[in-house]
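Changelog-adjacent note: as of this version, every example in the card shows the full chain rather than a window. The one below runs 192 residues end to end.
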Amino acid sequence: MGDSHWDPSLAGPILANRAQRFIIDHVAANPDQPFFMHYSSQAVHVPHTPPAELAGELIAGTTGSAYGDMVKEFDAQIGVIVQALQTAGVFERTIMIVTSDNGGIGQNDRLREHGYDSSHGYRGSKGKVHEGGHRVPFIVTWPAAIEAATVCDVPVCAHDVVATLAAVAGQPLDRQVIYDAQNLVPYFRQQP
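Full-length structure tokens:
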């Protein structure tokens, strides 16, 4: 959208492959040094231009809508990152958080036929004031510390990630700067 010499369907594969290369190169060069990577996917933002394939998985035209294809592409991007962590031998001790900045798009009739509801039953969608516009998934994997299939019903905010990662890294927080972020590790471990 805007640059006629750019193919937006390339964005996801470029981002995922660079993340993969960063992980593998970093761990190979510094096997005992932790790293932080903030991965911001372009999926599922407009333009909805999924790639033909990503990591050997067909994407474009496989779900019935371009938006659904972008959701599938996001899943494939996460798969590339997980595979890189596993290949590098650090998946078990890596904290990976997957979340979003706002709610999903409004209903899409083609996706609804397949049971897809981006707001999970809540009223509202991206950019709207109702809960469906703000409630988003918050998925964490940390195999060495979190039991698989753990569920927590405590509402959390994205800024809680700051206090959580500081606690894991043993770094103090300046409460004059970080006012109300909470360490989520006790919730991950189902502790009070």
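Structural remarks: The radius of gyration is 18 Å.
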